[in-house]
Design brief:
10 helices
């Protein structure tokens, strides 16, 4: 009984701290919690090794009874409309770059919030997914060992469901939300994994041929990497695209319930 009470009280305090940090940053977002073991078991083998390296001598105890907190910060409207915006038939790349800068800004916000939460909950912060590596690797496979998937954490924590574009779709923010995580041994209440609600929606597939052809391409994510390199050649400053995010937010069957 005390264990359950501790988990409830700790989780309430976690949510209070998170909301306070959101308010200080003047942002909107969401938070969830899942089991360290569940996340570890779902990661790619190379990411399991990365998580072992991060947790070091704490790994065994964390695998037995630890948790991972997922924090998400949403993009601001109307920044989503800057993605792939066309004037007549020409793409406005300078405007698209405003979305790239927002991507970077949100990463910085997350990378302030995650250590702040970690310091109060005896945790290990995992920063927002690193950028700047697209041109440093020869294939997207070389990227996976460098990161621990925040999407696996978010999906299992109940923050959202996995979309056809492989991003996490939040019930309010669509997939216009970015994540960081915090590993902790503190007892917390876990969220419940959400099953996909995409159904027959094809918004992201209509916007991106790579997603539409994902089942027949050797690895559509490598096509995404090459397209991002093309965007960078056009002056886009960060490793971003976002076309499927805009499509989900503006054209999906959930568009009326989404709000940024």
């Amino acid at each position: 009984m005390n264990h359950r009470n501790d988990a409830k009280e700790n989780t309430l305090e976690l949510r209070r701290v998170f909301q306070e940090l959101l308010d200080d940053e003047k942002e909107r977002g969401d938070i969830g919690v899942t089991s360290f073991k569940v996340v570890f078991d779902e990661l790619m083998e190379v990411q399991k090794q990365k998580l072992r390296e991060i947790t070091k001598e704490q790994f065994e105890s964390l695998y037995e009874s630890g948790f991972i907190i997922c924090i998400g910060v949403a993009y601001r409207d109307p920044i989503i409309d800057h993605i792939d915006n066309k004037v007549t038939s020409e793409v406005d790349y300078p405007l698209w770059n405003e979305y790239a800068r927002e991507y970077d800004r949100i990463n910085q916000v997350l990378n302030r919030m995650a250590p702040a939460i970690a310091s109060q909950f005896d945790g290990i912060p995992l920063k927002a997914t690193i950028g700047g590596m697209i041109g440093e690797v020869e294939h997207v496979w070389e990227y996976w060992p460098l990161v621990v998937s925040h999407r696996v954490v978010a999906e299992n924590s109940g923050i959202g469901w996995r979309g056809k574009n492989q991003l996490i779709i939040h019930e309010k923010f669509s997939c216009a939300i970015r994540f960081a995580s915090i590993i902790t041994a503190m007892t917390l209440q876990q969220g419940k994994r959400m099953e996909s609600m995409c159904g027959d929606c094809t918004a992201c597939e209509d916007a991106c041929g790579f997603i539409r052809q994902r089942d027949i391409l050797p690895d559509y994510r490598e096509n995404c990497r090459k397209y991002i390199l093309f965007l960078k050649s056009k002056g886009i400053e960060k490793d971003i695209c976002g076309k499927c995010i805009k499509a989900c937010y503006r054209q999906s069957k959930f568009q009326k319930q989404f709000t940024l």
